[in-house]
UniProtKB/TrEMBL annotation:
Keywords: Hydrolase, Protease, Signal. The keyword Signal applies. It comes from the Bacteria. GO terms for biological process: proteolysis. InterPro entries: AB_hydrolase_fold, Peptidase_S37. GO terms for molecular function: dipeptidyl-peptidase activity. Pfam families: Peptidase_S37. This is Peptidase.
């Protein structure tokens, strides 16, 4: 056998070092050009404008995008609008969490799921809200089908760039919107996690009344009702305080001050159990003075919910609620001694003038049937005491999805809100569905 000479060995070592240096330079160049490559890919998407911005710094890069969407996906000739979308980028190899908003974009920050699985995040503003409003509002085009088509267009565009797992999620109305999008486009994402999402089956779903009559303990419910009665019994003094506050805040109420006060007292029980921010010990006694009653009422159930300018801002929500996705009403019979309304009070006063508010139950019935039969890999999060949990998704025999209810939890329930053993079960389900390890 011929022995290799020392010079030959030196040449081989030099060759290997040379190749290592070339590889290092190539990898470094690839890392340095990743930002440019991403921007280039984003700008190559059709009907999209892109700008790099300062967003949540937990992401490596942050972008604001505007997608040109048709007002009517079935009739593009009707016109277009710009839809705002935010992109928080870590790495092309990581999963993508798409936050489907039910309203405007509340925050640019990473959501719970994005942080939990160290994912990229896409946040989509809902059509007709804030910056994603057409110049002319065709109210009949504000449907769950049209909104889902918006989200589908955005997701399909970004899926050309991000090839890993996709997870959709949303909170409250965003959770509802997440459900509706998955109903129309079940293959857009791999997994969905709707948080505290109602599944209303009628225009004013009476299950809300049943929930308020049974939630928590008997003593707790009595204290809530006693407070409402105390407010009604001090109505004249509370009206004076409301008039003073409305003047200071420059508020206007289409139903008048007395109507606004009646509505807000009735809203109190809904708000108390929905948010869970108020301790029972914080509720004033029935013999408290009017100032203390009013202060607690406004803290728990702000009057701005019924104020004219706020209603205009949230009108797309009210329109959807009253025509397609359902709402609730105020039960007046327990307080008939104090108010003279013959029927339960509804939210018809929020509708745009001259717009038909007829409710179409077909959409929710179809979505509900799909949830109980065909939906897959959807993980539902609820709070037990949250008023909106009254109309939570009922999976029936569908074991392809999972639902978790946080004991005594409210509308702010998140995965981190659950007891540790339930958190482990939730995370285990996500790990199984996503086929990845989650480090808590």
């Amino acid at each position: 056998m011929k022995t290799q000479t020392p010079n030959y060995n030196k040449m081989q070592i030099k060759k290997i070092n040379y190749l290592l240096i070339i590889a290092f330079i190539w990898i470094s160049a690839a890392c340095q050009t990743q930002t440019k490559d991403l921007i280039t890919q984003l700008k190559e998407l059709p009907n999209v404008s892109v700008e790099k911005i300062v967003g949540d710094t937990t992401f490596t890069e942050y972008y604001e995008m505007w997608f040109t969407q048709p007002i009517d996906h079935e009739n593009p000739k009707l016109g277009t609008f710009k839809q705002r979308v935010l992109l928080g980028h870590h790495n092309l190899s990581k999963p993508m969490v798409v936050e489907i908003q039910g309203y405007n974009i509340w925050t640019p920050k990473a959501g719970e799921l994005s942080k939990l699985i160290d994912a990229n995040q896409l946040t989509i503003e809902h059509r007709y809200f804030k910056q994603s409003r057409p110049d002319s509002l065709h109210w009949d085009k504000l449907t769950i089908k049209q909104a889902a088509a918006d989200q589908h267009a955005v997701i399909q565009a970004l899926r050309k760039i991000y090839k890993n797992k996709w997870i959709s999620t949303g909170i409250s109305k965003g959770g509802q919107t997440t459900i509706y999008h998955r109903f129309f486009y079940p293959n857009d994402v791999d997994v969905s996690v709707p948080y505290v999402a109602p599944m209303n089956l009628s225009r004013e779903d009476k299950r809300i009344h049943q929930h308020l009559a049974t939630v928590g303990s008997k003593d707790a419910r009595k204290k809530v009702k006693d407070f409402q009665i105390a407010c009604f019994e001090n109505k004249d003094k509370l009206l004076e305080l409301l008039e003073e506050l409305a003047t200071k805040k420059k508020w206007e109420f289409s139903m008048g001050l007395e109507g606004a006060l009646d509505l807000n007292i009735l809203e109190y029980s809904f708000a108390f159990w929905q948010w869970g921010n108020t301790s029972l010990n914080d509720i004033p006694n029935a013999d408290a003075n009017a100032e203390d009653l009013f202060k607690h009422l406004t803290k728990t159930s702000p009057f701005s919910f019924f104020e004219a300018k706020d209603i205009i801002t949230q009108q797309p929500f009210f329109y959807q609620a009253l025509t397609e996705i359902g709402m609730y009403s105020y039960e007046v019979s327990p307080f008939s001694k104090y108010i003279s309304y013959e029927k339960d009070l509804t939210f018809d006063f929020t509708l745009p003038k001259g717009v038909d508010g007829t409710f179409n139950p077909e959409s929710m019935l179809a979505v509900n049937q799909w949830l109980q039969m065909d939906a897959e890999k959807m993980l539902f999060i609820y709070g037990e005491y949250d008023t909106w949990s009254a109309t939570q998704v009922e999976l029936k025999e569908n074991n392809k999805c999972q639902k978790f209810i946080n004991p005594a939890g409210a509308h702010g329930t998140r995965i981190k809100s659950f007891p540790s053993e339930m958190q482990a079960e939730i995370i285990g389900t996500l790990e199984k569905w996503l086929e990845l390890k989650i480090n808590k």
